[in-house]
Amino acid sequence: MSMSRARTRKRARMTVVFAGLAMLGVSVALALLAFEDNIVFFYGPTEIVEQGVEPGQNFRLGGLVKEDSVGLANDGVTNLFIVTDNNANVEVAFKGILPDLFREGQGIVALGALNNEGRFIASEVLAKHDENYMPPEAVEAMKRAGTWKHTQEEGN
Amino acid sequence: MHKFANPTKFMKVANALFPVFCIGFIGLLSAGLYYSLLNSPEDYQQGHTVRIMYVHVPAAYMAVMIYAVMASCAASSLIWKHPLADLIARSSAPIGAAFTFLCLASGAFWGKPMWGTWWVWDARLTSVLIMFFLYMGYIALLNAFDDPQRGVKPAAILALVGVVNLPIIKFSVDWWNTLHQPASIIRLDGPTIDGGMLTPLYIMMGAFTLFYLMLLVIRLRAEFAAARIRTIRILGEG
Predict the structure, then answer these.
(1) Chain A nearest C-alpha distance from B26 (Å)
(2) Cα–Cα distance measured from residue A42 to residue A124, given in angstroms and rounded to the nearest whole number
(3) Which partner from B94, B108, B194, B220 sits 20 to 30 angstroms from A100, CA to CA?
(4) What confidence tens digit (pLDDT) does each residue in B6-23 have?
């Protein structure tokens, strides 16, 4: 008799634990869905172009550095390049030191705001790297074999 | 399973396995360090900096795994009141917290040269920082009471609440835009790390796991010794 009562209590505790976890999971999921706009670290060029962000409003822009778009402005210190998601493009100007991984075809995240001409004036540029890790020789071999698939090539 | 819930039987097995953990850890760590530092290729983009991965990824893996162990033990200490489950959870917490710190620190050292920043508030980094605070909160709550037994239940509930954070950590890089890159090992289409780098990484993950088991046995021994001292004191006073 006392044995079965103990078992009932254990079952009741188990129900409470799992029901509690399930409800907690649902509420956290709802909260995360509601705050999705604040959790994303950056916006892509398509979102920027479609949503029409006000000039002067700070946000982070993320995407790939477009091939053959990197250059210097006439002052000789401001870097100019285009960030693309292969759908929309945003022109970016950045006065400062670019990270080592910055190169054409590379993913980057820039913090700044649009000016009145729709150019993104960045105050900080971070490089993103992707999930692929391999030695340089493997990349060379894949390029020779024509099986090299990378954002750099897809951007063209 | 309930047979090993008996602390004496459990410790008998744990003590027998302890030398295996120690020797395995030293062996795997030596091999892992040799391969990861000296005999593995550079990355085509990151160069030698990629070697931080051999500490960062195993530390992150351990941080999440130990949290899962701690939370399962917290659940079973709440439901079945197994004293052993509580001891394992309590002994694992500082180890998990240390691995989380190692993960955050090595990530910062990796982020500075590669991304250009020590820290950003993206979903992956922030959710791991929250896990670090959960570990800290668990340890603090456990030790907040004069009677050590009174902290067990609230701390266990906190550990369980923190479980919702584990899938968030894992999938943060898929659900939201983050600066942190997506998963490289546990993904549907298989790892995206070259074999020459994956082997040392697995060896290091094995070494870190054995290190955890080794520390766990040592800490459990200390917990049992402390319990015995408490009993002797109470008997002595009575």
Answers:
(1) 27
(2) 13
(3) B194
(4) 888 899 999 999 999 999
Q: Which residues, listed in sequence order, are joined to residue A125 by a DSSP beta bridge?
A: A110
Domain locations in chain B as residue ranges: 20-237
Tell me the shortest Cα–Cα distance from B43 to chain A, in angstroms. 5
CATH of domain B20-237: 1.20.120
pLDDT tens, A27-68?
A: 999 999 998 888 888 999 998 888 888 888 899 999 999 988
Chain A residue with minimum CA distance to B81: A10
- Predicted confidence band at A3 (pLDDT cuts at 50, 70, 90)? low
d(CA B70, CA B87): 10
**pTM of the entire predicted model:** 0.90
Cβ separation of B164 and A21 shorter than 8 Å? yes
CB distance B44–A13 less than 8 Å? no
Separation of alpha carbons B203 and B31, rounded Å? 7
Residue from the list B161, B177, B181 with its beta carbon closest to the beta carbon of A129? B181
Host H or E run for residue B12: helix B7-33
Q: What is the pLDDT of residue A153?
A: 41
B139-169: per-residue pLDDT in tens?
A: 999 999 988 889 999 999 999 999 999 999 9
* Homologous superfamily in CATH for domain A41-145: Nucleic acid-binding proteins (2.40.50.140)
| Domain segments of chain A as ranges | 1-39, 41-145
The minimum CA-CA distance between B172 and chain A, rounded to whole Å, is 10
Residues of A in contact with B123 (CB under 8 A): 39-41
Interface predicted TM-score (ipTM) of this complex, two decimals: 0.82
- Rounded CA-CA distance B43/A58 in Å is 34
Distance CA B22, CA B212 (A): 10
